[in-house]
Amino acid sequence: MLIYFKQAYLEIANFILNSLDKLKMEEIEAFVKTIEEIYHLNKKILVVGVGRSGLVGRAFAMRLRHLGARSYVLGETITPSVEEGDLVVAISGSGTTQIVVAAAEAAKKMKARVAAITSYYDSPLGRVADLVVYIPGRTKVAAMDDYFARQILGVHEPLSPLGTLFEDTAMVALDAVIAELMKRLGKNEAELAKRHANIEVP
């Protein structure tokens, strides 16, 4: 029972665990330092992503807000304008998501900094960003002709479709960034809890 569930669970968990060796610590360090700088300068951090990457971005923006940062999600009606010196965190596994790339390009015109969370350095998003944080993950849909070749060779598609591995790995990596920032900014869980939503909407 639930054979595919167990296989998928292990596939995703093992991928995330093994991805730690593929992350570039100098990129993570630069990203953390940039957020620290933005925090101390009281500038804004604006996060943008589409679909499930957008959900990852929202979770990251929420945790940044809990730390006391001026974080927002681009596209929300109450999000302020991007200004010089702000930081835009753009999340796209492929680095080609049009809305995300357009937002990054617009941010650059406003003299804001752009940090890209992506699997592809040489992508429209990677090229426009000031800082790229590489997150491994399968982000492309396999071509139909490749499907038949895999069937003949007995090679099967992974049980984590589309951008699942990128999104899950990005979520864990950004949560780890929050943990690092907590220590560097001298925050504790009790302080974060004070900024957590205390009105639940039914």
TrEMBL record:
- Origin, by domain of life? Archaea
User: Which keywords, in A-to-Z order, does the entry hold?
Assistant: Isomerase
Q: Which Gene3D superfamilies match?
A: Glucose-6-phosphate isomerase like protein, domain 1
Annotated SIS domain residues: 34-187
This entry's Gene Ontology molecular function terms read:
carbohydrate derivative binding; isomerase activity
Short name of any one Pfam family annotated for the protein: SIS
GO BP term (any one)? carbohydrate derivative metabolic process
Q: Which SUPFAM superfamilies match?
A: SIS domain
What the entry lists under InterPro entries is as follows:
PHI/rmpB (IPR017552), SIS_dom (IPR001347), SIS_dom_sf (IPR046348)
Family per similarity comment: Belongs to the SIS family. PHI subfamily.
What is the designated name of this protein?
Answer: 6-phospho-3-hexuloisomerase
